[in-house]
Amino acid sequence: MNTLDRKVDGKTFLREQCYVCWMTPTDVPPPAGKTAADIRTEHFAYLRELERSGVLFAAGPFMDEDGVRHGAGMLLIRAATRAEAEKIAFAEPYTKAGMRAMVLTPWQRNEGSLNLRIRFADGVVEIDNRTYSLGPPASR
User: Fold this and answer.
1) Are the CB atoms for 101 and 95 separated by under 8 Å?
2) 6-109 homologous superfamily
3) Measured between alpha carbons, how far is 36 from 79 in angstroms, rounded to an integer?
4) Strand, helix or coil at 139?
5) N or C, which end of the chain has less CB nearby within 10 Å?
6) pLDDT value at 136 more than 70
7) Could you tell me where in the chain the CATH 3.30.70.1060 domains are found?
C-alpha cells in the first residue's frame, strides 16, 4: 500500500501526491537573445515532455468562457516530494526566465473520475464527454 493511501471501514482509498504550481506574470522581459515567442515554444515543449513522462496531471491558462485571460496559468504535477516538485516547476521556461513567478501548493488527489474509451474502428478516443481523432477513420 502506498503511504498516501488510507483505510476507511476496511477499504483502501487511493491518494496521489501532486503539487499545484500557480504562475503569475512578471514585468521581466525575455532574456537577451530570446523573444517571448522563443520562451513560449520552450514552454510548450517542456509541458509536452512532462506530459509524456507522466509527471504533468494538467496545465492551462486562467481563462474565462469569453477567452479573457486572468493571470498566467497553473500546472498540476505529480511529485513524491516538495523538492522534486520545485525542481520540475522552476525549470518551466517562463519561470526559469523570470517572466513568471511560481508558487507551489501541495495537493492530494483523493476523489474524482475520468472516463476513457478508445474506439479503434473509428480511430477516436473519448475522454469524459469529448472525442478526439487518432487519425483517419478506418475504412470498412
Assistant:
1) yes
2) Dimeric alpha+beta barrel (3.30.70.1060)
3) 28
4) coil
5) C
6) no
7) 6-109
Q: Which residue has the cell 468562457?
A: 65
Cα separations in angstroms, 4 against 54, 100, 106: 18, 31, 13
Query: Cβ(29)–Cβ(81) under 8 Å?
Result: no
Choose between 61 and 129: higher pLDDT.
61
Task: Give Cα 15 distance to the centre of its chain.
Answer: 17
Exposure b/e, 25-43, CB count within 10 A at least 16 = b: eeeeebeeeeeeeebeebb
Which pTM value belongs to this model?
Answer: 0.76
12 or 85, higher pLDDT = 85
**Mean per-residue pLDDT of the chain:** 88
- The amino acid that residue 50 corresponds to is L
The Cα–Cα gap between 116 and 127 comes to 5
Task: Please report, as a single letter, which amino acid is at residue 48.
Answer: R
pLDDT value at position 100?
95
**91-95 own/partner pairs: CB under 8 Å, 24+ apart:** 91/46, 92/21, 92/23, 92/43, 92/46, 93/39, 93/42, 93/43, 93/46, 94/23, 94/39, 94/43, 95/23
